[in-house]
Amino acid sequence: MRLGDLIYGDTASIVIDMMLPARATGAFRIAQAELHATLVGEEKEQIVKQDVLLEFTADANAAAYDPRVMNLVEKVTAFKLQTRALAEAEVGNTSGATQKLRAAATRLLDLGELELAEKTRQQAEQLEQGAKISAETQKELKYATRRLTQKLEE
Q1: Are 83 and 101 in contact (CB under 8 A)?
Q2: What is the CA radius of gyration of the chain?
Q3: pLDDT (tens digit, 9 = 90+) per residue, 45-85?
Q4: Whole-angstrom distance, CA of residue 83 vs CA of residue 145
Q5: CA angle at residue 150 from 56 to 46, to 5 degrees?
Q6: Total-model pTM
């Protein structure tokens, strides 16, 4: 996937959803990432390879996830729910759109995005009452939620 321009000192993240089979206890390489980069002012591409390791454990009390990663996953999930809801509203599936907007609002509320959660909830109510979501409101919700996925430092 293309990352676009990266700025030195800024953080960039990619979330990849993977299903893995159960494994014995221990560390396993589950993937290998490869970054191709051309630095400003240079012509030659640099390639950096990094193994992606995962520690498997039988300890049920072991930390199962990194809170920073899970926060990003929640933001991406809210964005996807909202995007699907707006697409369903466009084709007239009011019930599906309303359900997804309410789910997105709940996730946004859990993330502390109170204003955006309230706007999303209001749109679900309007759809339920037979009103359509204006193009302006669609853009506002879409871009406000997308911006959340770009705030990786939180």
Answers
A1: no
A2: 20
A3: 989 999 999 888 888 777 677 777 788 888 888 888 888 99
A4: 9
A5: 70
A6: 0.61
What confidence score (pLDDT) does residue 152 get? 45
Identity of the amino acid at 60: A
Q: What residues pair up with 53 in beta bridges, in sequence order?
A: 29
Q: Can you give the residue ranges of every domain in the chain?
A: 67-148
Please choose, from the candidates 144, 99, 143, the residue with its C-alpha nearest in 3D space to the C-alpha of residue 124. Answer: 99
pLDDT score for 12: 74
Which two structure tokens, joined as six digits, stand for 46?
A: 């640099």
Checking 113-120 for CB contacts under 8 A at 24+ apart, the result is 113/78, 113/148, 116/141, 116/144, 116/145, 116/148, 119/144, 120/82, 120/145
User: What percentage of the chain's residues is helix, strand, coil (to nearest 5)?
Assistant: 45, 15, 40
